[in-house]
Amino acid sequence: MDITVKNFVEELWQLKIQATENQTGKKTANQTENQNFAHQNYVHQKSLPPNSTNVPENMDLLHWGHLRGWLEDQDEVEKNAPLLRRSAARIIHQFMKLELFIPDVEDISPANQLQDLYTCRVCVNHVAQVYLQNLMAPEEIDFQGHTALIFNMLGTVPLQEAQSIIKKLRLLQKQNNFPE
């Protein structure tokens, strides 16, 4: 069974709420630096509280995510559709940067082993980031007698994989922002 865009976004948002509750005033130098970087580079967010988990009462979570910069029009319109892997990569990557303040991997060249990395040029950095941070695994296929790795951009995300992504993201978040 595949997860929908809406359900995945709700799971991600729970991660943000838990992180904010667990933080209780503790802010590391790494988190402050990442937070400043994220908000300097996304002008439309400057009027939004950087660590707010309060979605306005009259606003849907998906619309809120869109305003904050980690969701797009298509996510709101197709919220009940199965989540595509390329969309998951985009949502996760933007959420990591803008809500969890996790920095990007600087050198994405190791992701070039994914044979379909450039089939969606807009998706390249999103896919590379979630792949290199071990949040989404590639698929192995047989290609002309050799094993090749692909991301499978148009594949859907099963519920079990979505749950695994959330667990891995929680660990990554603790490593980057909220040390015990």
Features:
180 residues, mainly alpha, 2 strands
Report on this model:
By secondary structure, this protein is mainly alpha-helical. The chain is built from seven helices and two strands; from the N terminus they run H-H-H-H-H-H-E-E-H. Helix 1 (5-23) packs parallel to helix 5 (85-98) and helix 1 (5-23) runs parallel beside helix 7. The longest helix has 19 residues, at 5-23.
Offer a concise description of the structure.
The chain has seven helices and two strands, in the order ααααααββα. The chain has 180 residues and is mainly α.
CA-based gyration radius: 16 Å
The percent of residues in helical segments reads 40-55%
The H/E string reads HHHHHHEEH
Residue windows where pLDDT falls under 50 for at least 5 positions: 37-46
